[in-house]
């Protein structure tokens, strides 16, 4: 199993670059960046950097890490434009870009920027067409597409990505539609979750693959969870009492190692550690170093 890092998109860019260079120099596999324009809260005025611009900068500030969007909101940009942006970043990074994409969910961004916020079926239908558009542009010399939402007429994309293909990652765990889209189009799939939830979702993804005659092993699987690691049992009790907004990995290094091993046994190819709860730059560096030395080395 590989391990990657996910920095918060509201921190200043110099801190971001410091963290990116640190995880590259200490053996992590990748770095991911969220695609949002503002915080998802009543006061949405907090600083938030645009994802693809940052990914272009990360392509130039790193030389080894895979870099990717986790995940791009499909409704924010025409998928042909997204394909062009991703191919350019793949060129900048010499073949290290992963295009993560999802149906988009954050309503305040749509409302403030005047972007139509469709219902869930509408957003998923657009995601399905977008994946077809992007896949065609990445792989064909010219593309024609006559969908309900997107149209291409003799469309070219040059230069092509360095990678053949540039990996398309589908984010989300919806079992009826999202995982069906992933089975058809994804090179990689991602969702928040603990090992139990991931086993359930992977069974559904595998079944969708089998129905269309695709080998489920063709899809790389990744997941993320908040990390709370400490030798202080009282501190761990506090962490365990929290109502977390998303899954967490909580324990001392030995316990965290067991949990991480369970992710690997569940079929996770890449575990992503966000820094959302880790504090400032130095705390994040200390925590990721401890995780690497005491957990990654023993999985």
What does this structure look like?
- The structure is a single chain.
- This protein has 299 residues and is α/β, with parallel strands linked by helices.
- The protein has a single domain, classed as Luciferase-like domain (TIM Barrel, Alpha-Beta Barrel).
- It has 10 helices and 13 strands.
- The radius of gyration is 19 Å and the shape is globular.
- Helix 3 packs across helix 5, helix 6 packs across helix 7 and helix 7 runs parallel beside helix 9.
- The longest helix is centred in the middle third of the chain and has 20 residues.
- The protein starts with a strand and ends in a 5-residue tail after the last helix.
- The protein has an 8-stranded parallel barrel, surrounded by 6 helices. Strands 6-7 form a two-stranded antiparallel sheet.
Quick rundown:
This protein has helices spanning 13-25, 51-61, 79-92, 107-113, 120-139, 178-185, 195-211, 233-241, 253-266, 281-294; strands spanning 2-6, 30-33, 66-69, 72-73, 97-102, 142-146, 151-156, 168-171, 188-192, 220-224, 226-229, 248-251, 270-274. The protein is of the alpha/beta class and 299 residues long.
Counting helices, strands and paired strands, the structural category is alpha/beta
Number of helices: 10
Number of strands: 13
What's the CATH architecture name?
A: Alpha-Beta Barrel
**What is the domain total for the residues?**
1
**N to C succession of SSEs:** EHEHEEHEHHEEEHEHEEHEHEH
């Amino acid at each position: 199993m590989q391990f990657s890092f996910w920095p918060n998109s509201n921190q200043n860019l110099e801190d971001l670059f410091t963290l990116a260079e640190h995880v590259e120099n200490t053996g992590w596999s990748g770095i991911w960046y969220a695609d949002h324009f503002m915080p998802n809260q009543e006061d949405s005025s907090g600083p938030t950097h645009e994802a693809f611009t940052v990914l272009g900068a990360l392509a130039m500030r790193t030389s080894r890490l895979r870099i990717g969007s986790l995940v791009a909101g499909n409704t924010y940009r025409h998928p042909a434009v997204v394909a062009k942006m991703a191919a350019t970043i793949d060129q900048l990074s010499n073949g290290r870009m992963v295009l993560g994409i999802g149906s988009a969910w954050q309503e305040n961004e749509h409302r403030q920027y005047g972007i139509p916020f469709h219902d869930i079926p509408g957003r998923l239908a657009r995601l399905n067409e977008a994946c077809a558009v992007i896949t065609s542009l990445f792989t064909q010399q010219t593309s024609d597409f006559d969908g309900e939402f997107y149209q291409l007429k003799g469309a070219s994309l040059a230069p092509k990505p360095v990678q053949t293909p540039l990996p398309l990652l589908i984010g989300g765990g919806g079992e009826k539609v999202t995982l069906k889209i992933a089975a058809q189009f994804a090179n990689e799939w991602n969702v928040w979750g603990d090992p139990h939830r991931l086993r359930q979702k992977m069974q559904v993804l595998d079944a969708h693959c089998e129905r269309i005659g695709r080998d489920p092993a063709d899809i790389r699987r990744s997941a993320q969870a908040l990390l709370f690691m400490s030798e202080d049992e009282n501190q761990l009790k506090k962490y365990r009492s929290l109502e977390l907004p998303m899954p967490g990995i909580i324990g001392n290094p030995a316990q965290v190692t067991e949990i991480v091993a369970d992710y690997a046994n569940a079929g996770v190819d890449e575990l992503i550690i966000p820094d959302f709860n880790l504090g400032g730059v130095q705390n994040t560096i200390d925590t990721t170093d401890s995780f690497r030395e005491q957990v990654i080395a023993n999985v």
